[in-house]
Write a structure and sequence with these properties.
The protein is of the alpha+beta class. The protein is built from eight helices and ten strands. It binds cytidine-5'-monophosphate.
Length: 285
């Protein structure tokens, strides 16, 4: 039996603009995705003497068996490869879900990568990744940061200044499909578009003391969620008291605040801990 241990990092969205609704009902986006040092830990094994897929979960509660995206990922992969054997997955979750941090998508990408290595197959993982979820192609890329457009499949790696960050969960349950439905119903209420940056340059300079982070952090979902989720409003207010460099990740409800130094991030962590159900300090990868 062979086994591989792999980390599945979380991402934050440094700005997010919804640019339209596609014929397939999905939305086109513009966002800079950046991975951080919070991660799920996954062990994948392949046993030529057994069959089927087994999943053990620990850490933050996640769906059991077939209901988990990593199980579906293994099934899709094993149906495509000619290599036979049973797949065992042990998943330790640290990334809250739903959170807007891409945890499930990152787990799926990690399992694809692990199975590709274990089976020595040369399958096209990109097609499978797109089928599994809009954010999975980004995690498959294994680059720290990328400008992400289309439904999530058009990726341009970018290099950002290093940052320390504090992640804060508002405590509310906001599943991604519900957030997009809210967008469909209320996009007309939004008066201001938020161009994130001039993407033709795609080069980000240094981040200087006392200056804003060199990427616009506005998120279209924030405007929509504000009036509907009191925890979202409270988190946004609390973070804006600490720094101008804060934003909502994905469709929420996790926020981030960015800092240049570890000591500033630690100070912010101390101020936020106890006020919110989940606070986590990490940094860019
Ligand atoms: O692709 P994923 O499974 O992560 O998407 C979850 C849901 O979020 C989709 O069913 C869709 O409702 C919505 N979504 C969207 N446009 C995207 C990404 C997600 O409409 N680009």
């Amino acid at each position: 039996m062979r086994r591989i241990f792999i980390e599945a990092p979380a991402k934050i969205n440094l700005g997010l603009q919804i640019t339209g609704v596609r014929p397939d009902g999905f939305h086109s986006l513009e966002s800079i995705f950046s991975t951080v040092t919070l991660s799920d830990k996954i062990e994948v094994s392949l046993n030529p003497e057994t069959t089927g897929i087994s999943l053990e979960c620990s850490g933050i509660l996640s769906p059991p068996g077939k209901a988990n995206l990593v199980w579906k990922t293994a099934k899709i992969f094993m149906d495509k490869t000619t290599v036979r054997g049973g797949v065992g997955i042990s998943l330790h979750k640290s990334i809250p879900s739903p959170g807007g941090l891409g945890g499930g998508s990152s787990d799926a990408a990690a399992v694809l990568i692990a199975l590709q290595k274990l089976t020595h197959s040369e399958l096209n993982l990109t097609t499978m990744a797109e089928r599994l979820g809009s954010d999975v192609p980004f995690f498959l890329l294994r680059k720290g940061s990328a400008l992400v457009t289309g439904r999530g499949e058009i990726l341009h790696p970018v290099v950002l200044p290093h940052f320390h960050c504090v992640l804060v969960h508002s405590g509310e349950n906001i599943p991604t499909p519900a957030a997009f439905k809210l967008w469909d119903a209320h996009k007309g209420d939004l008066t201001e578009a938020c161009p994130i940056s001039n993407y033709t340059a795609l080069k980000f300079g240094a981040w200087h003391e006392g200056k804003p982070f060199p990427v616009r952090l506005d998120n279209h979902f924030l405007t929509l969620l504000h009036s509907r989720f009191p925890g979202v409003t409270r988190t946004a207010e609390e973070l804006s008291r600490l720094t101008v460099n804060w934003g909502l990740s994905g469709s929420g409800p996790t926020f981030y605040a960015l800092f240049r130094s570890e000591s500033e991030a630690k100070e912010a962590e101390e101020q936020l801990t106890g006020k919110f159900p989940w606070v986590f300090r990490c940094q860019s990868r």
